[in-house]
Write a structure and sequence with these properties.
Rossmann fold; eleven-stranded mixed sheet; homodimer; alpha+beta; BirA Bifunctional Protein, domain 2; globular; about 475 residues; five-stranded mixed sheet; Translation Initiation Factor IF3
């Protein structure tokens, strides 16, 4: 199996596709740029969905569902929005065998159709805030696609909220950014940098876009979630207004925020190694796999009976456990198979273990003998696993943090140094920046690095911009990005 | 509020739409035939989804996700399938600003695209069975639409399985029909009749279609879920084959089965009354609402403090509870508001109750004084609620069963009697039937009644067909239907 996975150092893009194939996460659909999410990949997405959904509810949001189809005219109501999205639209022109009078857009995002609904739902300050989220599929006609990272159709959640004031809407925008960071850190074991997008990179129609940026295993950046303060832009386009306490008609301030199946790609690229996937226990569909080992038939029955006992003990302890009963495969094959799939812990049970009433526990994140613990008493397996799972979760986060630190260059003094660092070391360049939008665009064209964000936390204080030489307090992170 | 709901006896269709509007379940979208599912309606769908999903997992199924878009040519591979679905297709002809070479169909159902994937995934008998389900949106270009019951876009699950033999596939088809019946009965409190569809009414491409049929509050039938045995039809169209134990290439036998947001419509129409919705506790987003009652400000604090205590006790007991804190509304308004929304139990707490450390408990399903229980000690509220919720659940099921029995006519002797019963009494006519497909079609045209199903359980034994006079063991249920 593992031989079927290209080493990361040889070809990172190929490694990524190999892992997706070998771990049976997804595959290309017959329609260009679309993918089939296979059961194991979908189970990871379900864990992401549940982790986010729980947080949305805890912060007072409700789920709803808005239509897939949006009249083309709706998109045209917000000038910047239509300009940003019109090159990417899939358009239905035929319905029930007849040419449609008004073509329908397959939603690329739902600000417009939801804005239209809010304009009817919101009458008074008493109706505010409106805090709604939707789990849905959306379509953007991308030219270059990559499974999970960028596909024509993808699954996501999109939150859409309406507020009385700019202050409240901005607070919501940042609250949801915090929710995303908390999820990424504590469930996906991915450290992210919270920041604001530049004007060049912001969402089409937003006043300000915020992002969580993560570093992938090749040093590239991935925008793993965004939260937008939309100001009055969509409120004016769709007449979302309310009567305030003084009976004066006011425009609402709205927000939107989203995380997509792209997060699965982030999990693969942040944690994966040359053996395949490594899943953080919080998101792993299977947290512990039990591999029974036997040679002779009489061993089989004894080993399986103990394996089932361990399986029950773990299931009772609410551990997601799977007993690999396949008869026609060797233990070595199975070890490899579950390693490729990134299962955090493996329990091996052989005839000797049965005699001694113990098992062997192996960590996916610590290769070789070091990650193995033999002689774990059966009576204590559940407790040992419950200790180890958070340890693995924490270790993955710490490794990712250390990797990011090792691949971040703090401060460059010149554009030449900027280019040298990018070429020779890659990773993130975190540095003072006072360039214009045009400077940013030129830099992107010349180096392929984009301004990922202006981080919200800036302990640096004032410094000199490497490009313009101006002194500034503004710090930016640049990187190649997906 | 309640005055805004047309009585069922005056206009059942209007009543249905009134309830959906007043309970804020859904509304029409700006695109004809599409709907917006509002948070309260969506929460009911989420409960339906969770109840089904749990059952699918317990029977060994896994979730996955297949693309929204299907190449038009795929649909054409199964002759009956394309004939059935082509009048209902929404077709994308433009993507990314360009005319597509091959138009893409927005999936009306996914047998074809999933069949294509299975043909690649399945090689040997060892790969079987494949047991996959998908939660998704689908689009069928319907001319006459009605919220939840028939919409252009709807949400559903579609199970797709592949098996080595006809026997196994048929067993799966019937197993999932049982799962649907179990869900309908025990969570939706809807008694359903399991049956086989006639050739005229079966799914386009199936060998045999099975259904769960429910009776709505006006005596009409609703097909609330279907399970299809597809034989080798899609296996032959998409080359889904496996090597059997003797190394011979064989076609798989496949099944598909689905339940949709239509189930929300069934819940509304089976349980609703002239006051609005009545929700079975298993599906109710809010199982218990607490309405605090006070006149003076000093009462307010004391009442709210007790209300919060009760809220905590119920939440701890894992009851879905909501405390209505709204200051600007009278208790009477609130009572009505939550009745319209069908909350199964209401707790009233006033100053006198606080003094006596008791509450009043009122059942939504038993109107007036009879449904009220005063003087329930606060310490015992959680226990009382935990006793009452299953009682309400059971009562709704029993009422629906009794209603169905009262509105079912067992056996008619002639076509004239058939027509008289349909006109004067309505409901289900359950009777021996030996008519041809053409007879069935004529009867539909002349009476608007359709052959809902051949029930699987037939205690009737042999009898005489009311139309042809032939003796037969076959029994059919006829009814007007949505």
């Amino acid at each position: 199996m593992a031989e079927k996975i290209t080493p990361r150092s040889a070809d990172y893009s190929r490694w990524y596709l190999d892992v997706i194939r070998e771990a049976e996460l997804a595959e290309n659909a017959p329609v260009r740029g679309c993918m089939i999410i296979r059961p194991y990949g979908y189970a990871i997405w379900e864990a992401i969905r549940d982790g986010l959904d729980r947080r949305f509810r805890a912060t007072g949001h409700q789920n709803a569902y808005f239509p897939l189809f949006i009249p083309l005219s709706f998109l045209q109501k917000e000038a910047e929005h239509v300009e940003g999205f019109s090159p990417e639209l899939a358009i239905v022109t035929i319905g029930g065998g007849e040419q449609l009078e008004e073509p329908l857009v397959v939603r690329p995002t739902s600000e417009t159709i939801i804005g239209h609904a809010y304009s009817r739902w919101i009458r008074s300050y008493r109706d505010l805030p409106v805090l709604i989220n939707q789990w849905a599929n959306v379509v953007r006609w991308e030219l270059r696609t990559r499974p999970f990272l960028r596909t024509l159709e993808f699954l996501w959640q999109e939150g859409h909220t309406a507020h009385a004031t700019a202050e409240e809407a901005i607070a919501e925008t940042l609250r949801m950014l915090d929710v995303y960071e908390d999820f990424a850190r504590n469930e996906a074991a991915i450290p992210v940098i919270k920041g604001r997008k530049s004007q060049n990179e912001k969402f089409a129609g937003a006043v300000a876009s915020y992002t969580i940026e993560a570093m992938m295993g090749n040093g590239w950046a991935l925008q793993a979630g965004t939260s937008h303060y939309l100001g009055e832009n969509f409120a004016r386009a769709f007449e979302i207004r309310y009567l305030d306490r003084d009976n004066v008609l006011q425009y609402c301030h709205t927000t939107s925020w989203g995380v997509s199946t792209r997060m699965v790609g982030a999990v693969i690229m942040v944690h994966g190694d040359d053996q395949g996937l490594r899943l953080p226990p919080a998101l792993a569909p299977i947290q512990v796999v039990i591999v029974p080992i036997w040679r002779k038939d009489d061993e089989r029955a004894r080993v399986l009976s103990v394996a089932e006992q361990v399986e029950r003990a773990l299931a009772t302890a609410e551990v997601r456990v799977h007993l690999d009963r396949r008869d026609d495969l060797t233990p070595g094959f199975k070890f490899n198979d579950w390693e490729v799939r990134g299962v955090p812990l493996r329990i091996e049970i052989g005839p000797r273990d049965v005699e001694q009433q113990t098992v062997v526990l192996a960590r996916r994140d610590v290769p070789g003998r070091e990650g193995k613990q033999a002689g774990v008493p059966i009576a204590g397996v559940a407790a040992a696993v419950q200790d180890l799972l958070p340890a693995v979760q924490q270790a993955l986060l710490q490794q990712a943090l250390a990797f990011r630190e090792a691949n971040t260059t703090y401060g460059v003094r010149s554009y030449d140094e900027f280019k040298t660092v990018l070429e020779e070391k890659g990773g993130f360049i975190r540095t003072h920046w006072a360039g214009s939008d045009a400077d940013e665009a030129r830099l992107k064209e010349e180096t392929k690095a984009t301004l990922r964000c202006f981080p919200l936390e800036v302990p640096e204080g004032e410094g000199r911009c490497f490009l313009t030489g101006q002194r500034t307090r503004q710090v930016a992170i640049f990187a190649r990005a997906y």
